[in-house]
Please model this.
Amino acid sequence: MTLQNFINDALSPWLNTEGIDNDIVLSSRIRLARNFEQVPFPTSGDTAAMEKVLQFIDQEFNQQTFQDFKQFQLVKMSDLKPIEKRGLVEKHLISPNLAENEQTGAVLISKNEQASVMVNEEDHLRIQLYFPGFELTKALEKAEQLDDWFENRTRYAFDEKRGYLTSCPTNVGTGLRASVMMHLPALSMTNQMNNLIPEINKLGLVVRGIYGEGSEALGQLYQVSNQMTLGKSEEDIVEDLKSVVKQVIESERRAREWIMEQLGIQLEDRIFRSYGILANSRVIQSKEAAKCLSDVRLGIDMGMIKNVPKTILNELMVLTQPAFLQQYAKKQLAPNERDVFRANLIRERLQLEH
Model:
């Protein structure tokens, strides 16, 4: 896997596998925030200290393999163009915050892109691990093993009472952020999300858009994650999140049954109109594309559309975003040019399946 694969290929290899409850849960993610002992946090440390962190990661882990996570490659933000960094954000391999650290920011990415380790973001390390579908327990197990691999070669900043010490107080303790990416079109159509989100928040969890904090739920895709990291074990945090996610899955399935019973032909019409827009449009904006892709995904999951694999939709959700679109075009595009190119690209990908 080369840097150009990370940047140019919209669909990460691990997304080619369908996981548990994949009609609703696209992916499960575990993120661990870690810092080195006696080294200033990135938010307060000087450039020289952060460069030492980066050099250590480069020497110890670049081109290394751990279990199924093969050939980690270190990608430095200073080596990337702005559009390339944005492409990595659109694939969830880095955060927007890391993309802004052009001096000492970097990311270790495994060959299949299932694991990525952000270096010198808010913390020295942010270890991320993804699994397709609803696989939080397995993701936690593998993330802890990956975490041990790093800890065997260094010493983390750790306090017996507080746990892992982090730049942001909300991450102190386990340093764990567990999240699932969910497709919730029926709950959105029936306006139940407006009531559901505050109820989830009361349980110490948070619901965000597709790119995390401050982002909107494009294509009815929502991230549900924990907020508290202190006072609970990693296993308890994950179990609490799993319990809530299971309830959301059940609610979404009931809502899908309801709209099918109540709307019937109108729902079918909406889904096939969206497919028609994707298959025939000459100009389409990103928000409209995301909405139509959501409708078509729902149509596939409800058995209405049978000739389009969901992997194509996963690819198009990333490929039609501004940075990837321009990477694919191999040139900068004005907004109106992107809308034309996006429509052409969607038609091309859908026709490949006929």
